[in-house]
Amino acid sequence: MVDTAYSVDEILKNLSIEALNKMQMEMLATFPKRDDILLLSPTGSGKTLGFFLSILTKLRANEDGTQVLILAPSRELAQQLETVFKSMKTSFKVSCCYGGHSFKTEKNNLIVPPTVLIGTPGRIADHIDKGTFNTKTVHTIVFDEFDKALEFGFTDQMSFIVQGLPSLTKRILTSATQAIDIPAFVGVKSLTILDYLETENRSEGLTIKVVLSEDVDKLEIFLKLIAACAPAEQVIVFCNHRESVERISDHLTKYGVVSECFHGGLDQDQRERTLAKFRNGSTNILVTTDLASRGLDITNIKHIVHYQKPTTEEIFIHRNGRTARMGAAGTAYVLLTMEEIRPAYLPNDIETLEVPEVKTRIETPKWITLFIGKGKKDKVNKMDVVGFLSKVGNLSKEEVGLIEVKDYFSYVAIERSKAKEVIRLTNGQKIKNKTSRIEIA
Question: CA dist 392 to 325, 366, 373, 416, Å?
């Protein structure tokens, strides 16, 4: 029988969402009637909840085995999807598999099959190749950000995965891009398209401004912009190349500004640590490539800076999609030199901002991130971390910020001014009766 141990109202309450939007309601209504669905909707419009609620209607509580497989083009998106599903608090088990994560740990997690399995194409293909879970029970597959997966070169892996799922009856593909060609390997027979790319007003709440630089490298005007417009607010700075990301971050460090780099050249631990710091407010400036333009769990961003102009309008839209989400307001700044040709996707009437000469200092964040070398596999949870820092580290609840507990370690934001004393007090101490490495991340 179909599981009824959940309600949409309860799920919305668990996610702190007041009501479904039009796209999510149409997805719910369409899913039972159609086997092949392409959901087109802008970044930040709620596609994830739309397909999660839909697949819940088909999950059966009394059946063993993995019933739904969800493919994501990046590790970060796969992790985000797992977090959202767990936050819904249904009775179904979910597991997440991705490159850079322990294959042995994942294999052990699959011994008791999750009802919903989420992963990157490469890692899921490895599991299918090694037979770590029964593929015959999977009836639904979701290709999240399918266009991005094709762009990243996962065609062969996804084709292999589909060939290994003999019982597929339903296929969902999502994309924030209009131009998407669906290869034959997906197995689509009669496609239903739900297109919300045009009906969604992407510009609502978003202000775009051009900033002109007399200098070719734009570093001086960039620092003035940050100091004037966002001295203490979170900013994502987009570049086109990894080298540019590193150079800008080094320049910020030179001027005593706390920032973090994020790009595909970092290993998994570095990427997780960077995002944890940005989420918990230990850094307010994230300098990144377009890897961060889609599929990351980053909210409440007020400012986007296009340090290097996007090569296409599509990239411009995806970058801007990190701000002005779900009705909030945000500003995107496009930095151009005097000689640069203004891209065609920028209307001529967009304001050119004269950045004021201000003495405002870019504030050092209130928080700093603590690394604790124990996690879920050590039976450590968030309350254990709070209790440990309160009892041993002598911190009040107000001095402890966001906590993220991973499999084998944890990240926790604490007040920066307390960091040295906390390290001194916790050095060599035990959490959950186990001595743990504790240091600034």
Answer: 40, 21, 16, 17
